[in-house]
Task: structure prediction
Amino acid sequence: MGNQTTEIMTVGSSAIRRRRLVQGLCASASALSLLSAGGAIAQSHTLGDETLQEEAAEVDSIVVTGSRIVRNGEQAPTPSTIIGTEELNAQAITSIVDISRALPQFRNQRGAQAGANNSQNGGQGSLDLRSLGANRNLILLNGQRIIPSTGNGIVDTNILPSSLISRVDVVTGGASAAYGSDAISGVVNFIVDTKFKGAKLDIVTGASQHGDNEEISANFAFGRAFLNDRLRVVGSAEYYWSDGMKMLSRDFLKARGGIINNPAYTQANGQYRNIATDGNIVAAYMSTGGLVNGCRTASGANIANCALRGTAFGPDGKPHAFVYGDYVNPTGNMVVPIGSTNPDYAAIYDGVMATHPSERLSFYGRAEYDVSDKLTVFADIIQAKAQIGPTGNVPPYRFGTSSTTWLSVTADNPYLDPTIKTQMSGPGGGNAAGPHYLNVGRFNYDWGGVTVPVNTNETTRFTIGLRGDIGRGWTYDAYYAWGKNDYLGTGTNNLLTSSNGVTSLGRVNLAADVVAAPAGNAAGIAAGTIVCRSTLTDPGNGCKPLNIFGVGNASAEAIAYIMGEHFLATTYEQRYAEASIQGKPFSTWAGPVGVAAGVSYRSEEVEAKVDANSFAGNFGIANSKPYQGEQRVIETFGEISIPLLEDLNLDLAGRITDYDTSGQVETWKAGLNYRLPGVLSDLKLRATSSRDIRAPSLSELFTGFSQSRGSVIDPFASGNATVNIQTYTGGNAKLTPEIADTVALGLVYKSSLIPGLSGSIDYYDIEIADAISTISAQNTVDRCHQGNSALCSQIVRDSAGSIISIYVNNLNVAALKTSGFDIEANYVREIASPFKNGPMTVGARLFLNYVDQFATIDGIGVEYDTTGSMVDQQPQWTGQVMWFASTGPYQMTITNRYVGSGRYNNAFEPGHPSYVPNAIENNHVDARLYTHLNLRYKFNSYGADAEVFFNVNNLFDVTPPYGFAFNYGLTASPMYDVVGRMFKTGVRMRF
Result:
């Protein structure tokens, strides 16, 4: 792996470097345009009749995504949507993942900069169809698998050559019979224009109206044919940079609105359990200089109504009374007046990013050579580097609410104010009846700021293959692909809170336990020297005394002692080989029968390395574990399309997959496609039923175990005794594939009376069994007691029958169910123009998604329906409509994106397993409608077809509902826009 801390890129280090890179691409455009000399000039078309007709022609005789049989695109029974380059250009998309804005079937996405601050896939371009997870849809490039970006099996689409993508096929239905594992919710197939000739340069810059979230995108692509068009070469170079946006950079984010628990609630007092507030939610268990959140006796027992609880320490360490707000949750948060400037209140999210800084550089190249008119060989390569961060997580704070999160203070601490010592017992105390220990919570921003994660990825993929014509209507296709991904995730300013699972020995706890060395101590330390208590018995432990009181009073040596840097480095390799044949061996009375068949082999292996502190579980966050593993897969597949009548087709597909880790599994699909006769010939019916799978990812199979301590009530023991246990969380090599059953029914309309009008409505129902999940230690014991022998095997007991440990690793125990409707409508026509630029083309394209049900069934059989629950990001209605008009060189596109109304949380509604009366006063969340504007002007300059454009996202600066922008700070809800009005401008040139 090499040096684990080496950064592959330096984000934001040099604006000059970025300018030079863009200038270099511009210069390359001139130089490389010579390579394309003699090639056809690339034409740019409006999103009108001509473009739609070209796209229709393009799919007339292709391998339709979701099937391997060459046919007309309209003959496929599986619901599919094609997104053309014109639609992508009309939204000024700078990252491929942002196609998720174009279809409401994509959920939980906000773009390339979004994602959890400390997750492996944070900020990457992962796509999630139907909220079933980015690991349950399959990403393809030209119909071929792409190597995942991490061991969890998720692909970063931003590494794909966006400047050469001719279209994106989105199949919203199961396709495992055609493509294998992961295609449960659908397939997203990016099609490269392998016959592109000429050169093109796209440059985009943008920023929000607040001056942040700046971005630069520069893409260059070229294509050239040689040897009388027998050799075709295309390539691209792409660069992207953004500086991100801080969480508290917007007024509605600074307000810290949300939902807070009402501690005074009882079912009988008429108050509401949850309070929705537009701000200001702050921590009630810590302050900037330290807050006493509880007290204990010498034996460690909690003291109720401790007089010192609520003592805060000012910047100089002097004590004063902490000013509590409303709805005070001693172990959580409270509400204080908006705009409060009390320095005690922890501004937890000052350094957290709402969108991530990111930078990437990618290259793509492809060559095709026609050896003969019946044989073509090809090869392509992708090389991409990307960095997400440095971004900000929350500071390494201490809650002050439990033995694993508080800082423990005694009266002999020399940094503690004397007026507090006099109220305490024990050595140095002045009140024998006072508390022996104080539980202190502290916001540790002055100990180095926020924890700073940085994720870097380097991906290489190489493919070589051939295709040809056997004769008599038979063709073949074979290829081999090798890919490798190197991931490095680092984090600085991570607090060392434990030592091999023992919290009291964590460095921050040792350093906070400070005394003045007594005379004659065994360590030989001079009397009165301020030292860690542990140093008196272990002089060589290196502990540095930490002053936790006040702001900025800790020494640099102590801060260095209690902080560390973590890393997780994974190497993922994938090898894939496939061969298939397609043909039409015979005909029935209704037409030729199409068949396809093939075999494939895939091997995947992963190795993850971590630092020593993470391995030991010493950090407050992260603590990744090393693992390694491999998986081999052999598959055979076949497909047949049978015309039963002139306008009635039956499609059948099957696949047998053999995993060396879990054995054999079968997938299949059956579909019907029928165009109604006579006056109803504008209508087409389609229906599919399929069995699909998702194999467990390598991380789910092989991630190393993390250990922690806990307790459970053992119903097998006398008196339901509570026992202390060790829990183990991690992978499970015995996992089997998830099994999904999908049904889709659709109606397609293409008007013969109104030219340019078409539409479709499709119903879908997906049920996933054996979904991979975990069960808590207590639920494991309870279900074992109820007779679930499989879960009993997760429990380890000693010879006396007492529980000593429980494995809460990944299991095939959960289920998912979702159903709903997809609606699409298209209309385009030509009208007389009021301008002197010839006729005007106008039109619209509408996408709607309605979720009838989205339910999860956990490992203990409880069903949670999250349909309409906005905290679960499940609005029932979402949609987008694109309006466009063009005349001559001018084009305007207005895009509306709709997020329907819903409920804050379904748990607040009667009938939910967690419901209690008076859960909330108003559980309604209003809908949001976003408007995006794109203006384009086309012209010819220096022999190139050029286009300049101006784009405004969120034209009316629509803000999220409160509670969904802030979300207690770590990530804003991806459904809503937190950036606000965003401007982009750019130029596209075609040579």
